[in-house]
Amino acid sequence: MLKVVCFGEALVDLLSDRISGNDGAGEMEQFRKFPGGAPANAAVAVAKLGGEAYFAGMLGDDLFGRFLLEELKAQGVKTDYVRFTDVAKTALAFVSLDEYGERSFEFYRPPAADLCFRPAHFHEQTFAGQGILHLCSNSLTDSEIAETTMHAAELAQARGWLVSVDVNLRHNLWLAGAADSARVLELVQRADIVKMSREERDYLAASENFNDELLAQRPQLLLITDGPQPLHWITSTGQGQIQPPMTRAVDTTAAGDGFIGGLIYQLARQQVTPANLGEWLNAETLIEALSFACACGAHAASLPGAFPSLPSQQSLNAFLQARSQHV
């Protein structure tokens, strides 16, 4: 089993008890506290499945930061590489859901503690041994955290690590109100595996040959998700689709993180490195791993919250068995 390090933001999701679009006049809206943040979710996904997962990032030295640290530990994530700061508070995200479980976010970031992480804050053992580094675009939203993120990718690749990037665009986190596509593409081009939604792919694509141009650089596997619609996978030698399990979406907040966490777990379990990734992609192992990842994402969408919705091996087996009985 390879070591997995997920770097970036951990934040607190404050989930509304009200369905967006229902005005609820005269009723008091309440928000329930959940741990979250895309890289933190991915780390939890790997850990709950049985992998060796670390979260690396900066938390505020405050009530929410300590809450996140304890929640990460409770889920089996190793927190050796977590740093604390009193310069900024832990980020918050107020989350509203519609009747289909689709979410909208209001972020209290910047300023936020996760943006204060610098190259010097990486623990000397972060990239020791063999492993997989997972990154997201939310650690690109200002120039200094972007430089830190690129530095992490360079360090990992210099040690022979696999690098995974989930585009995961949140336009309202960027000061301009829209993601800097050039900066996001700079990170994407350094990855071995890239996950993006169909909308994110369309936003980043500068030409009709976007997929081919990306695969001509470092990335070897592109994954394009589309909610409950088929996952589209693309390599330099082939492409295909996989239909995720059908489920009633309750909260899609961590569905994408569940998916990528499930895939990273399989890569770590099968000890896939940059040196043998090409061989792995041309075997049945790719389809099996992507099917497993799709099931993890569907499981996460079927439950509220981020960390609580991510599957263990036991809960995933029960989820799939229940689906099979309804076919």
Record the SSE blueprint.
Elements: E1 3-7, E2 11-19, E3 31-36, H1 38-49, E4 52-60, H2 63-74, E5 82-85, E6 92-97, E7 103-108, E8 131-136, H3 143-158, E9 162-166, H4 181-188, E10 193-197, H5 198-204, H6 210-215, E11 221-226, E12 229-234, E13 239-242, H7 255-269, H8 277-281, H9 284-301, H10 313-325
Describe this structure in words.
The chain is an alpha/beta fold and 327 residues long. The chain has a single domain, classed as Ribokinase (UDP-N-acetylmuramoyl-L-alanine:D-glutamate ligase, 3-Layer(aba) Sandwich), CATH 3.40.1190.20. Helix content is 34%, strand content 24%. The protein has helices at 38-49, 63-74, 143-158, 181-188, 198-204, 210-215, 255-269, 277-281, 284-301, 313-325; strands at residues 3-7, 11-19, 31-36, 52-60, 82-85, 92-97, 103-108, 131-136, 162-166, 193-197, 221-226, 229-234, 239-242. The chain has a 9-stranded mixed β-sheet with strand order 5-4-1-8-9-10-11-12-13, with helices on both faces. It has a 4-stranded mixed β-sheet with strand order 3-2-6-7. Strand 9, helix 4 and strand 10 form a beta-alpha-beta unit. The longest helix has 18 residues, at 284-301. The protein is globular and about 50 Å long. It starts with a strand and ends with a helix.
Silhouette: globular
The CATH fourth-level homologous superfamily = Ribokinase
Please identify the oligomeric state: single chain
SSE order: EEEHEHEEEEHEHEHHEEEHHHH
